[in-house]
Amino acid sequence: MRNIEIKAKIDNPELKISRIVQLTKDNGIIMKQHDIFFKVAEGRLKLRKFETIVKNIFLKMFFSLTDGSGELIYYKRSNVFGPKLCDYEKVALDENACSGIANILIESNGSVGIVKKTRKVYMIDQTRVHIDDVEGLGNFLELEVILNDDQDIESGEKIAHDLMSKLDIKSEDLIANAYIDLLSKSIE
To answer: Topology of domain 2-186, per CATH?
Structure first.
């Protein structure tokens, strides 16, 4: 699978959310995610555990759905500013598989670290839009333009640039690295 991604540091997540909701007419969903990163020769390998928080604006209630499920995700992406290609594979895991695979990978490969975040997820056409509150780092916006099989990289980059403009994302706000890299740098 392929997508075109950007990541940007944001100071005012509520302003970005307001613009996103204007575009989507949707309040999105809120998820808590814990990503365990493992040592690999190339690319990145992470096991993501989910907790979904569903906000019902009509009932003014929140529901938390925790079933222990997750995903194992392997991806390759350059650490460059601006829209970049990400090749990835992922598999859905139930609670038992999540725990078992995490233990096996920690023992066999070793862990690089853990990223904990609260993610608000929206869809704008073929683009996933994330507003992330990352523990130890702050607030970020991510765009993931999901490429169709017959779609070239340039058309995905154009979609990303158009959304960057609509969401007022400036080039100086762009981040090249993954959250795990930023957390590692903040510890050093």
So the answer is: Hypothetical Protein Pfu-838710-001 (2.40.320)
